[in-house]
Amino acid sequence: MPQLPPPQPFDQDDIYRTLLESTQAIPWKIDWASQRYVYVGPQIEALLGWRTDDWGTVQDWIDRIHPDERDQVVRRCVELSQAGVDHEADYRALTADQRYVWVRETVHVLRNAQGGTEALVGFIFDIHERKQTEQRLLALQRELQALSYQDSLTRVANRRRFDEALEQAWAQAQATQTPLSLLVLDIDFFKQLNDCYGHQTGDQALVQVAQALAQVCDKCNDLVARYGGEEFVVLLPKVGLDIARQVAERFRRLLQEQAIPHARSPFGQQVTVSIGAGSLVPQPGQDCAGFVHAVDQLLYAAKNAGRNRVVAQAVLL
After folding, report:
1. DSSP per residue over 96-123, as a string?
2. What's the CA gap between 214 and 45, in Å, rounded?
């Protein structure tokens, strides 16, 4: 039986290098004292396009982090490395052809005999596809949330959004003792509008009224919402009664200028609204539901007084 040749000695470092360079993760090592790369796996070129000799110092790494993440990532990594704590970071890395891809970097801190940081070793992982999927899901979630707060017909906020915004504005006004105003308005003779023209034209009138209201109430803190049916509300944080009255009258004038046809309206055969405008500084023990009810009563006062008008009043609860 022929003799097999004796096993050849092997270089352990070569085996480790082969294992490292056969993985999809990109290995690297940095000398802490000189802040220079001692080793970068050749896989880096497939992911980022940079050659291994393009990584000379830590500054090369810093310069290739997206500006939006750079300061935070660098500060955190330096602090944890100095403290001898292993860590990881997600960020967008610049490619050689000037694109950005998402990567995750895991870092292990090597210490010397005195316990100080001697070197950093780690891996770079490609997480670009996963990050893009996460961002798409997040964008979809935000879109669905926005739709859940929007009236499907008029595209202004719905009753649910108004209820939440009112609670937040009420709590803030109560804490800071600043005024809070509310407009509650209703389209005059809306049933007759539907009877005359049909529900499709009635829906279009609701859309036009909502758009005009949003045009007048264009401040970032104002909220226009469809409260139900032909009724709308406008929430005006940090606004007193005089300004609330001005906003209401400005909207009535704009609606008059637009002259939306309404053959059965006694007011120039066009769409008009009645508006209740109320304001207060919320006090302890008071609640926002009582405030809405009080302003709703001002709306009914406007209707009972003949419609197509604003009734504005400081609210006492």
Report:
1. TTS-EEEEEEEEEEEE-TTS-EEEEEEE
2. 53
| Catalytic machinery residues | 230
Q: How far apart are CA 147 and CA 140, in angstroms?
A: 10
CA distance 153 to 243: 29
Mean confidence (pLDDT) of the chain? 90
Residue in 138, 104, 136 with CA at minimum distance from that of residue 123? 104
d(CA 70, CA 93): 10
* Average pLDDT of the residues in 280-307: 95
Q: What pLDDT does residue 20 have?
A: 52
12-132: CATH class:
alpha beta
CATH class in words for 151-314: alpha beta
- The contacts of residue 222 (CB under 8 Å, 6+ apart) are 234, 235, 236, 237
pLDDT in tens, 218-256: 766 789 999 999 999 999 999 999 999 999 999 999 999
- Asked if 45 and 51 touch (Cβ cutoff 8 Å), the reply is yes
Angstrom distance (rounded) from CA 44 to CA 100: 14
In the chain, where are the structural domains located?
Answer: 12-132, 151-314
* 41-62 pLDDT per residue, tens: 999 999 999 999 999 999 999 9
Q: Quick one: which of 202, 162, 160, 207 has its CA closest to 183? A: 162
Give 45-54 contacts, CB < 8 A, sequence gap 24+: 47/101, 47/103, 47/124, 47/126, 48/93, 48/94, 48/95, 48/96, 48/101, 49/95, 49/96, 49/97, 50/95, 50/96, 54/96
The CA–CA distances, whole Å, from 246 to 46, 181, 195, 242 equal 64, 12, 32, 6
Smallest CA-to-CA distance from 70 within 89, 97, 44 is with 89
Cα separation of 162 and 59, whole Å? 50
